[in-house]
Specification:
This protein is mainly alpha-helical. The protein has six helices and two strands; from the N terminus they run ααααββαα. It starts with 5 loop residues before the first helix and ends with a helix. It binds protoporphyrin IX containing FE (HEM) (2 copies). The site of one protoporphyrin IX containing FE has 27 residues, from helix 1, helix 3, helix 4 and helix 5.
């Protein structure tokens, strides 16, 4: 059974936990200006930082070959879905960082103050912040579908897909 590399497996599960935690700690509305969700910022920025090695390994290392790929269309859909997930892992932290700037909320990472990506405004933080909030919901739905597909592969098709990404 061809498996993903240890690095990919560790990053996959660590980032899955961070994304879930970022979703739970995300807050919207006026409250964000008064009491910024710093843990949310930290979790989301960690996803952004970890995406760098993850994409590097993915782009230069490739993926383990499937043993008996039978459904080319499904395989294509899975790959497309994975790239949408990568897109969200990049887009969500950046739009969130931008939204924080619009709200006039400072963002730090391990004590390091990060530059604001946008000038602060009064009132609504605008469409990028809305894209961020919607994207936060979309990533959860897509990850749910992703989990369902992984379980279907493992237990219905029995093609060992989950074992490819299993930490043990
Ligand atoms: C994987 C990463 C992230 C996910 C899944 C995520 C998810 C979310 C969600 C679901 C909300 C909306 C909560 C609600 O309306 O009840 C939200 C709001 C927000 N997030 Fe994130 N976020 C991520 C990363 C970040 C980062 C890195 C920052 C900043 C550095 C950030 C800043 C914000 C801000 C400022 C809001 C409030 C936006 C507004 O009130 O319009 N997020 N996030
Ligand atoms: C309990 C939750 C999860 C399970 C059971 C799971 C399972 C898996 C499995 C089995 C694979 C390998 C697929 C294959 O061999 O083709 C995989 C790949 C992948 N997963 Fe997850 N996953 C989970 C959560 C997440 C989350 C939250 C994200 C990000 C939002 C994510 C993003 C990805 C991506 C991008 C790949 C593709 C790796 C590549 O480039 O080939 N996963 N996942």
């Amino acid at each position: 059974m061809a498996r993903y590399s240890k690095t990919v497996i560790v990053l996959h599960w660590l980032m899955a936990v961070l994304i879930l935690a970022a979703w739970f700690t995300g807050e919207g509305g006026r409250h964000v200006r008064e009491n910024p969700p710093v843990l949310h910022f930290w979790l989301g920025l960690s996803v952004l930082v970890l995406l760098v090695p993850r994409l590097a390994v993915r782009l230069f290392g490739g993926i383990p070959a499937m043993e008996a790929p039978q459904r080319p269309l499904l395989d294509l859909a899975a790959r497309a879905g994975h790239w949408v997930l990568y897109g969200l892992m990049l887009g969500l932290p950046i739009t969130g960082w931008y939204a924080a700037g619009r709200l006039g909320v400072p963002v730090t990472f391990f004590g390091l103050p990060l530059p604001a990506l946008a000038a602060s405004v009064q009132g609504s933080p605008g469409w990028v912040a809305e894209v961020h909030e919607t994207g936060g919901t979309v990533v959860l739905w897509l990850a749910g579908l992703h989990v369902a597909m992984a379980l279907w592969h493992q237990f219905v098709l029995r093609d060992g897909t989950l074992s490819r990404m299993s930490p043990v």
